[in-house]
Structure prediction request, 153 residues.
Amino acid sequence: MKPEHDARFRRIAEDYLGRPGGDYAELLRRGQVISPDGVDPEEWRAEIRAKARADKIRVITIRDDGRAIAARQRGVPKDQELAELSRELDRTEVLRGLAERARQLGHEIDRWLRHDQESITFCTRCPARIYARFDTATPVMDGEALDDACESS
Prediction:
């Protein structure tokens, strides 16, 4: 992994480990959250929406292949909500493709952690990592899990 991506990966991971607090806290902190595997997406969406309503925060929730996504609306004008949702779906597809690429090398990718326009993950069987950034015309993708076979397979 390039040194600048390694530094960002470590910073994002440290920030998360220093302030865990569940999916709703992740939504507030990062602006977007994806439901964990194994939970009912509709129940998860309802819980996120209820907490957001209580805090008077606007969120968008959608379903995507058995999972759910929640994103905070940060002053996005009503006429741009669809474009924002489309960008989030595109991002999800890119991350899904990266995870699949890593799986083909024997890695086990479980969840992604997001910080603004950056996402990180790691193999649950070896120390290989993935870093992705989406604030450029072409997403930045880097990490051992994209290039090297899993040490544990």
